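Let us work through a complete example step by step.
Step 1: write down the sequence.
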Amino acid sequence: MDNLYLIVSDVDGTLAYDAATISAGTKAAVNRLLAAGHLFYLATGRMYNLAALMAAQIGPGAEIIAANGAVYDFGGSRVHHLLGEPAITAIEAACAAHDLAALYFTDDMVYYTTPPAQAIQDMLTHFAPASAQVGVEQLEAAALGQRAGAIANAIVFSLDDPVGLAAVAAKLKREPALAVSASDPTNLELIPHQVDKANAIAELQAKTGIPPARTIAFGDGLNDLGMLQAAGISVAMGNAVPAVKAAARYQTVSNKEDGVAQFLNHFFA
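Step 2: predict the structure and record it as tokens.
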């Protein structure tokens, strides 16, 4: 591994052209590096089975960091960091106080106790095509707690109540079992404390022996900041938010212009 790189890319707004497609140019660039022995990971907030649909577009060599770092591939197996029942209880209480709904994710199931608004259900369908092997089930609170041994992360959406969402965020940020981030102003992404994309990268660096100096990370959103800081070679997309551009060592063009492929082709030329 002395000359190999660990390459990690966010998916939406970064690796993917749109919610369902990775371009031919990006696939070719990644596969050329996989053939040379480098490691490539997609890093996303999506649940594992939805992330797997994107990874399959690249091919069998692409590995997965899902649920914002709570789940990742290594050595032919899958590593999980789980929310736990205390965190789930806190999420349910905070959401109930502000009439919001949380969605909970295992690798292949979505659970909720309060049905999300129809607009949110429609938005989620956009990321989950009919081919996705994903189940959806409404549960009572007690039954949800019984699934705690499989739930890796949760998301709270609010398309029309930013005040309520901010209040829920403030409450949950005080919960010691939780880490709270956001990929968009309309959501809260909830994962176990001290677990995120950056933590997953650090664990992979330790397991592979590949140091930060040979770790390349691409991102566009605020939930990518930690991941970029964990990589010695941090790259912001042309469409990234200003904070990400300020934090990154390099900048490439947008996801619509194959920014990941352009950077990798130049870097490994």
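Step 3: interpret the result. The chain is about 40% helix and 25% strand.
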